[in-house]
Amino acid sequence: MTAAEINKKWKVLQQKVSEWFDTETPDLKVMLFLVGVQELGQGPKKFSKREKEELMHIATCRLFSSLGFYELEGADEDGWPHWKLVNPIPNYTLLEQELMIKSLLLDYFEEYEIY
């Protein structure tokens, strides 16, 4: 998929999520947070700032696992998943990183038939 195609689909996904939650257009961080909550599997609840950061990390690991960079090790006693880096992630420019994360998020939402 080209950058233009990714960005076009991204805008559609943002609009859908905005409508689902009756909120402003979500950015990458919000989308990562949503994936993290989904992957945690404990439903919506209040999270501390630290937990929100951890949820975004969980999402990032989950997304990059589809490319073989992370592997799920298991969950801790509280049910939080833990991932290990199995292959180093190449040094991407900020623009490349953003495009890759958008593409992975689109794949994730399509995989779960959310999008």
From TrEMBL:
Domain of life: Bacteria
Name this polypeptide is given: Uncharacterized protein
